[in-house]
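Narrative summary of target 7.
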Amino acid sequence: MAGFGLPNFGQLTEAFRKAQQIQQDAQKLQEELDAMELEGKSADGHVSVWLSGNQMPLRVQVAPELLSGSSEAAEAAILEALQNAYELSTSTMRGRMEELTGGLDLNLPGLGG
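Modeled conformation, tokenized:
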């Protein structure tokens, strides 16, 4: 009795191999993102904020002349630098995740693949 509608064992083995590789690559990607230092700056260049590729705040640098001015200007520059760093960090993460999963096609018969 052959068949029973089961997928070919070679296909299953290949699918599991792909899944294991993706899991290993995802772990490596997490480590790479953690090690990244992505800088966001305010438009005037007085504030820099560094985040990891996983949006972990790492450090902030504020020009002394900004601190001696109005608190509103300092707050706006800090927020702008933080937003720029966050946007860079999230776009970097998204791009790297798309690279990782771009070729994902397990194509398992009977599972809608």
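Strands lie at 38-41, 47-51, 57-62.
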